[in-house]
Design a protein that fits this description.
alpha/beta; Rossmann fold; four-stranded parallel sheet; 9 helices; binds asparagine; asparaginase
Amino acid sequence: MSKKILVVNTGGTIAMSVDDSEGVKPLDDQAVNKILPFLEKHADVTMKNLLNLPSPHMTPAIMNQLRLDIEEAFQHDHYDGIVITHGTDTLEETAYFLDLTLSVNVPIVVTGAMRSSNELGADGPVNLISSVRVAADSDSLNKGVIVVFNDEIHAARHVTKTHTSNVATFQSPQYGPIGTIAKKSVQYHHAPLDREHYAITHADANVPLIKAVAGMDPAWLQFLLEQKIDGLVVEAFGLGNLPPAIIPTLQQLLDKGVPIVLVSRCYNGQVQDIYDYEGGGRKLKEMGIIFSNGLNGQKARLKLIVTLQKTRTFKELQQLFDH
Ligand SMILES: NC(=O)C[C@H](N)C(=O)O
């Protein structure tokens, strides 16, 4: 019997068209629906046009609404798998947010396209067909939210957009894809070990992300002392070190009770408390800064937005970021 798959469209280039005079934008509201006949051979597909957003317009609040909509659709009708189409710019963020929060135990696949629907070599149709095949495959169960793109399957936690235009943009640095899509089969070769789930009610925390650069001026951060922020993520150098000039401002934020999560600007490896010079990781750890475990900045921000609903104490947040 064919599997029941729900495809939820949220927008992005997969739903856009190119017009020589106007550039790329959502010109044809049927762009994704036109792929439907090609999906029906692989599963019993229901398509729902939920949003038509360029993904730079995505917000954590919209991601949370998407989570609620999926949970509701699932309660209403038991689907065997769910596919979400999404713009690629923030796709990894929505995929990871859903990975942390969605309580639906069927394969959840996120996909999109790098080339618009009427462009030569458009990758949207094949990515969507592959996604439906993956969502309908029982081996996709218990892998968390997965991203299917360019014949590869990636874990939401590790995947990131690595190229501005190439169709092979989604990669999982250091880990690689967890599976591949062949002409006739879906093949998994790894499974994500660490999976986390948080029951949340909203995604309203205000958590900025800042990146360390050489010669950083503390004035760039001082305005944060006047803002109502719930937390802060800092992309540090290398193993987790920062310019000494910004340490007093970070200390003031900590003193105000603002949790600060440290990630690295490097896209391989994780931050650790090794260096003991001023601004070095050991000093940052002593100050109470929370060290994240290999997440990139944009994902650590979402994890902080989510985990702040569980606890606000630095120590407990550190335990959650150890995963
Ligand atoms: N390829 C894409 O989907 C990029 C587009 N700017 C978006 O994220 O909506």
